[in-house]
Amino acid sequence: MNKIVLITGATSGIGEACAEIFASNKFDIIITGRRKSKLAELKIYLEDKYNINVLELCFDIQNRHEVSASIDSLPEKWKKINILINNAGLALGRDSFENASVTDWETMLQTNVNGLIYVTKKIVPFMIASKAGHIITIGSIAGKEVYENGNVYCASKFAVDAISKSMRIDLLKYGIKVTAIHPGAVETEFSIVRFKGDKEKADKAYLGYTPLQAKDIAESVFYTANLPKHVCINELIITCTEQANATYFNKKA
Ligand code: NDP
Ligand code: 8X3
Predict the structure, then answer these.
(1) Is 82's C-beta closer than 6 angstroms to any atom of ligand 1?
(2) Nearest CA to 109 among 223, 47, 215, 100?
(3) Dist. CA 31–CA 18, nearest whole Å
(4) Which of 148, 154, 190, 216 to mutate to test the pocket of ligand 2 (most atoms within 8 A of CB)?
(5) Separation of 16 CA from ligand 1 center, angstroms?
(6) Smallest-distance ligand from the CA of 94
(7) Alpha-carbon distance 152 to 156, whole Å?
(8) Is pLDDT above 90 for 1?
(9) Is 0.85 surpassed by the pTM of this model?
């Protein structure tokens, strides 16, 4: 087998772009997500185009037992995971604290924080056994600065930042690298999900400037994953040129 990378949330956006760049560089890939048909399409596409092996795992990352059973179901040779890309995540709503939905908050925390913990806790023992491995987590600029109406999405990404930092300390003794990549605005399905299918609101999020594309982040992920053994990028904050921080954009009218 080639080196193996497991990517959560590979059915669209940044995760899908990561799958493509790793496949094109001859990694075997475990792709995960809830949309079974998208996983199946992606597997066929990547295997045909790049002549590598792809294994699909369909699960809801919020469900600890589904995560656990799915990872347990991996054939032994697929458990030798070299790189874990913790990418699955979402924002739901962008409302002021008093108006925001508690159910949306629960979904964000359950997905972005608990889901990440469930997957990582299952994969870390494989990496400890091989005394190597690299965990690359997609945080967000929202995990570095809070912004108006970002409330619990920001909190979930602050937690992701903290978990990455603490894993880097705890896993140091095993030679496991931990990298967090914190993007600003990236044009993916993210805003469609955040605004619950309201395309007009979603499109507005990317108006008046040139946002990052999923491939831009995937290229950075790939770069950090392919440095010499003694080099670890701890974290990166990446924005498009017209974004200075979580809130300040140089937008054309
Ligand atoms: P997309 O909506 O395009 O992709 C999100 C991915 O996460 C999908 O593959 C989706 O798969 C998966 N996912 C979501 N919920 C679950 C779940 N419950 N179980 C399993 N998989 C799930 O968005 P992006 O590519 O933009 O987002 C990827 C990551 O990047 C997220 O963590 C996001 O917070 C972060 N990010 C995004 C930014 C942006 O502006 N786009 C900026 C900063 C960070 P499926 O629906 O098939 O389950
Ligand atoms: C996504 C970027 O600025 O919408 O994490 O929170 S932002």
Answers:
(1) no
(2) 100
(3) 10
(4) 190
(5) 10
(6) 2
(7) 6
(8) no
(9) yes
Cα end-to-end distance, the chain, whole Å: 52
11-17: average pLDDT = 99
pLDDT above 90 for 165: yes
Which domains does the chain carry? 4-238 (3.40.50.720)
Tell me which DSSP letter residue 106 carries.
H
Total length of the chain? 253
The whole-number average pLDDT for the span 91-103 is 98
The helix/strand/coil state of 213 is: strand
Query: In this structure, what are the phi and psi dihedrals at residue 189, rounded to the nearest 5 degrees?
Result: -80, 0
Selection from 153, 140, 114 nearest residue 245 by Cα: 140
Considering only CA atoms, which of 3, 2, 147, 160 is closest in space to residue 88? 160
Which two three-digit tokens encode residue 30?
């475990």
Distance between CA atoms of 127 and 174, rounded to whole angstroms? 8
Over residues 224-253, the pLDDT tens digits come to 999 999 999 999 999 999 999 999 999 997
Tell me what pLDDT residue 19 has.
98
- The pairs formed by 127-131 with CB atoms below 8 angstroms and a separation of 24 or more are 127/81, 127/84, 127/171, 127/174, 127/176, 128/171, 128/174, 128/176, 130/80, 131/174, 131/175
Beta strand segments in 13-161, E: 28-33, 54-58, 83-86, 134-138
Taking each helix axis from N to C terminus, what angle separates 64-72 and 116-130, rounded to the nearest 10 degrees? Answer: 30
For 9-147, strand residue ranges (E) read 28-33, 54-58, 83-86, 134-138
Residue 253: the pLDDT is 76
In this structure, what token pair is assigned to residue 15?
């995760």
CA distance 150 to 200: 19
